[in-house]
Amino acid sequence: MWITFLCHFPPLIEPTEVSLENAGLILKKEFEVPVETAYVFYFQFVLPSEKSSKINKIIGERYDYFCDGETEYKSIPANKREGLGLPIPLKALIYDESSNKLIIEKTFYSLCVSSVGKNDLIRRIGKVELTRGDYRVEIFNLNPQPSFKDIKASIFLVNSGNGK
Questions:
Q1: Is 157 a residue whose pLDDT tops 90?
Q2: Of 73, 54, 55, whose CA–CA distance to 64 is shortest?
Q3: Which of left, alpha, beta for 77 (phi over 0: left; psi -120 to 50: alpha)?
Q4: Measured between alpha carbons, how far is 23 from 143 in angstroms, rounded to an integer?
Q5: Based on the structure, what is the number of domains in the chain?
Q6: Residue 164 has what pLDDT?
Q7: Residue 105: inside a domain, yes or no?
Q8: Residues 117, 119, 123, 129: is their CA dihedral positive or negative?
C-alpha cells in the first residue's frame, strides 16, 4: 500500500544506503518538508539472495504493535519476541536548516518487517511530526549490528499516510 502512496507523494529522503555494522553516525541528509504532517523513517533491506530462516531471524518475519519504533526490545515479553527480528536502536536528530537549531531528538527501536518483496524487505524505524520547511537529519546507530554485514541497508523518509 505504501508503494501506491509514494507514486503521489515522493519520499522526502530517497533510499540512501547505510551501514549498520558499526555504532555511530550512519545518515546525514538535508530534506524539504512541503506539507505539515507526520512522516515515517523506514529501512529497506536488499538481500543477497532468496530469503532464508537466518534472514528472517535477523530482519524479522512478522509485524506487531511493538513495531511502532517506540517500544524498547527489553520491554517486550519474551513470549512475544519470536519473529520480530534483531532490534536496531537508533537516535534521530532533526535540525531546522535555516537556524541550525535542534528541533527533534528521538530514539527509535526498529524491530520488525512491515513489507516484503522478492529480495527486499521494508522495516519501520519511527514517526516524526514536521511542519513545512528545510531540515537536516542525522541518524545514529546506537549498537553495532554485525549480523547485517551481508545485507544492503538503506533509509528513506515518507509521508505517514495517516494525515496530521
A1: yes
A2: 73
A3: beta
A4: 5
A5: 1
A6: 39
A7: yes
A8: negative
26 or 46, which is more confident: 26
Domain ranges, residue 148: 2-159
One DSSP character per residue, 56-87 reads HHHH-S---GGGGS---GGGS-GGG-TTS---
Whole-number Å distance between alpha carbons of 97 and 58: 35
- Is residue 21 scored above 80 in pLDDT? yes
Please report whether residue 164 resides in a domain: no
pLDDT for residue 102 is more than 90: yes
In this predicted structure, what is the pLDDT of residue 8?
60
Using DSSP bridges, classify how beta strands 88-96 and 101-110 pair: parallel, antiparallel or unpaired. antiparallel
Q: Does residue 138 lie in a domain region?
A: yes
Where on the phi/psi map is residue 24: left (φ > 0), alpha (ψ -120 to 50), or beta? left
Q: Could you tell me the CATH number of the domain that includes residue 118?
A: 2.60.120.790
